[in-house]
């Protein structure tokens, strides 16, 4: 970390009540997943730690993103959501200081221990706290905090989800030929259907196992800076169809039940309607996942993401086979075409 930023972070921490100077701080860098931001862990002489997050230099959108993280994070923390405490923010550079939640992600525990009783417990805790955060986080939420879009809407679905899938995966990565007009008509109808869902709840929009930390035997949520108002089922679908974890269908159903039972403590919800909305939103989220993995793996060179493309395609194929999702035959055919193309490619392309 450059000296000027270290001095700024120390000023932010002193304002938050810490007693330290730059010469007393050890700084380690750690790498994010798909973000262009830089992450640092600071350790003081007495063993206290904090995390500093810095956007790329002269990145105006990164500075707006940091501002969103500051305001949304404070709002969620006050609402009782299990997010890190924020210590300070420098509006000029976008530098943000926050609580250090360690380095153990829910994804790490799934990878090393499978669905052990403890891991299952963390998932149940996560979906219960998600329901509470969505309801309480919507109260008093100011959409002017959002750096991207204030609502999850039809334009976002078509541009950042179905359009992302068609461009980044189907065209740029797999180089597929398909009937674009028919596929796009189905994508528009899917977006119209989802746009009719109640979208007045707090939406994290990247709620998955690599954004859930486990600290002091509790789950904590990070990467909420893309928060906005949206539908309830989207974040739940994000977690349950998460390709990093590959949760079995039976456990997914168990978690939906637990989520609905918790949600009922806060707001009335018809389970049958919710489950129908869930399938449609899971399809939308799956399209976004595939676009992102193809873009990050192919365009950004972050090949880690490529190995998860086929599992995500398999999940999308399963979702499109459900009766609730009838009416999208060309999209399902395209997904199968993607699966065949991925299987035909050398294993070395994906195995990193």
UniProtKB/TrEMBL annotation:
Under the heading Pfam families, the entry gives: APH
What positions does the domain Aminoglycoside phosphotransferase occupy? Answer: 33-265
Give the protein name, as stated in the record: Aminoglycoside phosphotransferase domain-containing protein
- State the organism named in the record: Desulfolithobacter dissulfuricans
């Amino acid at each position: 970390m450059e000296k000027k930023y270290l001095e700024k972070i120390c000023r932010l921490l002193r304002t938050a009540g810490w007693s330290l100077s730059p010469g007393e701080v050890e700084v380690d860098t750690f790498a994010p997943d798909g973000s262009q931001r830089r992450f640092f862990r600071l350790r003081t002489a007495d063993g206290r730690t904090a995390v500093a997050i810095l956007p790329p230099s002269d990145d105006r959108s990164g500075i707006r993103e940091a501002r969103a993280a500051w305001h949304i994070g404070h709002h969620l923390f006050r609402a009782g959501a299990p997010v890190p405490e924020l210590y300070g923010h420098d509006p000029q550079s976008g530098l943000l200081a926050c609580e250090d939640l360690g380095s153990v992600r829910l994804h790490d525990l799934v990878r090393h221990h499978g669905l052990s009783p403890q891991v299952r417990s963390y998932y149940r805790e996560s979906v219960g706290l998600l329901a509470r955060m969505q309801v309480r986080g919507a109260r008093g939420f100011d959409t002017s905090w959002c750096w991207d879009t204030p609502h999850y809407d039809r334009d976002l679905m078509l541009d950042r989800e179905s359009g992302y899938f068609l461009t980044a995966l189907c065209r740029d990565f797999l180089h597929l030929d398909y009937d674009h007009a028919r596929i796009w008509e189905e994508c528009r109808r899917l977006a119209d259907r989802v746009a009719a869902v109640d979208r007045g709840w707090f939406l994290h929009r990247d709620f998955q196992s690599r954004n859930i930390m486990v600290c002091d035997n509790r789950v904590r949520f990070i990467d909420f800076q893309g928060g906005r108002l949206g539908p309830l089922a989207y974040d739940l679908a994000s977690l349950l169809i998460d390709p990093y974890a590959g949760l079995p269908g039976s456990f997914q159903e168990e978690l939906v039940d637990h989520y609905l039972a918790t949600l009922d403590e806060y707001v009335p919800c018809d389970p049958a309607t919710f489950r129908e909305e869930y399938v449609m939103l899971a399809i939308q989220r799956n399209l976004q996942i595939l676009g992102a993995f193809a873009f990050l793996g192919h365009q950004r060179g972050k090949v880690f993401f490529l190995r998860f493309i086929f599992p995500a395609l398999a999940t999308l194929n399963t979702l499109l086979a459900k009766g609730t999702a009838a009416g999208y035959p060309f999209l399902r055919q395209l997904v199968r075409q993607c699966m065949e193309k991925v299987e035909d490619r050398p294993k070395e392309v994906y195995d990193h």
